[in-house]
Amino acid sequence: MTSAVETDESEGERRARATRVGLALATCFATCFVTGLLSHWIQHPPGWFAWPSTPVWLYRTTQGVHVLSGIAAIPLLLIKLGVVYRKLFERPLIGSPVRLIERLSIAVLVSASIFQLLTGLLNIAQWYPWRFFFTTTHHAMAYIVIGALLVHVAVKLPIIRVALGEAEPEQTVDDNGRRRPGGLDRRTVLLGAGGAVAVAVVAFAGQTVPALRRVAVFAPRSGAGPAGLPVNRTAEQAQVTVAATSDSYRLAVSGPAGDVSWDLAALRALPQHTESLPITCVEGWSADAVWSGVRLRDLVRAVGGTVGAPVRVISLERGPYAVSTVPSSHAADPRTLLALRLHGADLDIDHGFPVRLIAPNLPGVMQTKWVGRIEVS
Fold first, then answer.
1. Radius of gyration of the chain (CA)
2. pTM here?
3. For residue 105, what are the CA distances in angstroms to 26, 149, 153?
């Protein structure tokens, strides 16, 4: 028996609602894809790519937008599926070749989108209940989502054009002036979608926007940690506590003129500089901090290196993030430091004691902690 919703609500109205929510979702996906690709290129730069060291807030902004657009996509995807779920199981399941392409693109788009958003959300919380390497998989899956989205839009383009031009129907009322039973009108759905997106974004935005930290109830990186900065990976987790606190610690720097090493006292005796630089993690959190230490370019000169040459920074830690390459623009920037102090106090071991790299406008994953060696090209 046909329900009241199916009787009162026209197919055109359903289509118009689905189209508008779908456009918002596609916008979030496109924004998330572009900013995510940018972050990937910064960490694994193609030969043609160059990322500037200034302004210092640029990566903080792009990565914040990346995470928040992904968060915004979650309620939009749920609403979109709620609007169109009947169509997902509509007969015939295959039909014509065009319909087959459409069904396949929808299946890939829905499954890949759910996977991408769910794993991204768990990455923010640093919970990895899987065996695959998140970064590589997340990057590859992004192309699948965008590819399926483009195919879906291409197939649906004639319907999208019609749906965007359809006016919202007038509400039907009974003799008492009350709206007759039926589906939610378009305005209610869109306002509800906007409200859900706003709540989701605000609940997470505090890890990127300091002014919203008090209301960021779901932000896992809101400022807790030594010196008020979050810690993604502790010294205990990295298994560097003994090496980092040993009296035999030396920072070794190699370059064209040979090798030079400094112990902690010698590093502190070098000219010290202080810079106010935010630190931003790929999970989306960021925090302002005041760092003091030795300029990287001063150490490059000490071993006969050319200022602006790429520099490899190697941690006492072992693993996939033990080595980072400082781009030439950042190596030459006077704000790039081998930091010894944070907010006027010696670095906490979980922030990279005795020495950590801090460079403007780079992801936190490239700001190597527990630095043991520097190699100048």
1. 26
2. 0.85
3. 14, 7, 10
